[in-house]
């Protein structure tokens, strides 16, 4: 799954939902929602990839993650141009390879861990989601969207179901965030799509 | 090793790849209305927060979801604080796991 979908948070979510017997269609919808932010990353990187081959851009898209985007865009801005190493190194060496090795190790050794809760493994997923969320917060709007997403998610989960709750939080949280006026200084911080 | 989830992996690829490729392969995304782009920018934090919150605050027993308070809250809060402070997810996850292990050794649920 790590090599085919390479979805990070979405993989975590999918495994949890598979374990709970959720329909694949719901997992697919969640995956789609979870990874919608990649459209923005992709748009922000597009100007730097202008002139690169279609094949290179297509492969780069498959390896686009929160981590590779953050590291690559910072590097491109620092050097002022596209730099192949600046994208492929974070995408492959620091993300794809360790992630794939770790998931493979988990598949092979997972059964040896009789009681995962004793080792705190059950808190890794929510902590990772929360930690990744912190990395995406760069202003009041993101903060409010996250808070609203969490509150709506929990409320809807209790009223209907956790699956619907997560989707509702992801869809409605951003609408609450949009209600917050833009901070003046943030205009300069946004990724430039040239 | 089971291969039951390979079709699911392909399904996830099918729904994941377009959003990753849309900008790089069809850069017209920068012509979306500004409001739509702003909305997309907020989807990531909102859905990750919803996933984390639902995971630690809601437990389903006999098909009925109910609110729960537990050690996982402390782990997640510690992770958030450390990532915000040090900008280091690995450190945050380490602290979250350490709290969970220590708490359970102390007999907490």
Structure description:
- The complex is a heterodimer of chains A (194) and B (109).
- Chain A is 67% helix and 0% strand.
- Residues 185-194 of chain A have low confidence and may be disordered.
- Chain A is mostly helical and 194 residues long.
- Chain A has nine helices and no strands.
- Chain B is mainly alpha-helical and 109 residues long.
- Chain B has helices at residues 6-25, 34-57, 71-86, 89-105; strands spanning 58-61, 64-67.
- A two-stranded antiparallel ribbon of chain B has the order 1-2.
- In chain B, helix 3 packs antiparallel against helix 4 (89-105).
- The mean pLDDT of chain B is 87.
- The chains are: A mainly alpha (194), B mainly alpha (109).
- At the A-B interface, helix 1, helix 2, helix 3, helix 4 and helix 7 of A face helix 1, helix 2, strand 2, helix 3 and helix 4 of B.
How many beta strands in the DSSP annotation of chain B?
A: 2
Instruction: Please identify the structural class of chain B as seen in this structure.
Output: mainly alpha
Average pLDDT of chain A, to the nearest integer? 82
Computed over alpha carbons, the radius of gyration of chain B is: 19 Å
Give the largest interface pair and sizes.
A-B, 96 and 69 residues
Assign the structural class of chain A, choosing from mainly alpha, mainly beta, alpha/beta, alpha+beta, or little secondary structure. mainly alpha
Features:
heterodimer, A: 194 residues, mainly alpha, 9 helices, globular, B: 109 residues, two-stranded antiparallel ribbon, 4 helices, 7% strand
Q: What topology emerges from the helices and strands here?
A:
The complex is a heterodimer of chains A (194) and B (109).
Chain A: H1 9-19, H2 24-34, H3 37-45, H4 54-62, H5 66-79, H6 84-109, H7 124-136, H8 140-159, H9 162-178
Chain B: H1 6-25, H2 34-57, E1 58-61, E2 64-67, H3 71-86, H4 89-105
Antiparallel strand pairs in B: 1-2
């Amino acid at each position: 799954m790590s090599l085919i979908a390479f979805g990070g948070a979405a993989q975590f979510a999918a495994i949890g939902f598979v374990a709970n017997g959720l329909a694949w269609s719901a997992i697919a919808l969640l995956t789609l929602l979870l990874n919608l932010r990649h459209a923005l990353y992709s748009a922000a990187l597009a100007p730097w990839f202008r002139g690169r081959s279609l094949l290179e851009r297509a492969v780069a898209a498959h390896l686009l993650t929160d981590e590779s985007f953050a590291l690559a865009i910072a590097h491109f801005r620092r050097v002022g141009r596209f730099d192949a190493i600046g994208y492929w190194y974070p995408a492959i060496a620091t993300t794809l390879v360790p992630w794939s090795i770790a998931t493979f190790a988990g598949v092979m050794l997972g059964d040896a861990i009789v009681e995962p809760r004793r080792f705190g493994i059950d808190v890794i997923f929510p902590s990772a989601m929360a930690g990744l969320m912190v990395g995406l917060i760069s202003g009041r709007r993101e903060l409010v969207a996250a808070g609203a997403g969490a509150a709506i998610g929990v409320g809807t989960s209790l009223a209907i179901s956790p699956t619907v709750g997560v989707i509702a939080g992801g869809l409605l949280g951003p609408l609450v965030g949009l209600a917050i006026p833009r901070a003046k200084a943030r205009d300069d911080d946004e990724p430039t799509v040239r | 090793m089971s291969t039951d989830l390979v079709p699911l992996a392909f399904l996830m690829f099918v729904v994941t790849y377009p959003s990753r490729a849309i900008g790089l392969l069809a850069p017209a995304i920068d012509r979306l209305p500004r409001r739509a782009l702003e909305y997309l920018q907020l989807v990531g934090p909102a859905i990750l927060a919803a996933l984390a919150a639902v995971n630690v605050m809601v437990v389903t027993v006999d098909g009925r979801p109910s609110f729960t308070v537990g050690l996982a809250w402390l782990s997640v809060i510690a992770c958030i604080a450390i990532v915000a402070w040090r900008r280091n997810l690995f450190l945050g996850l380490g602290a979250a796991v350490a709290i969970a292990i220590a708490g359970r050794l102390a007999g907490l649920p």
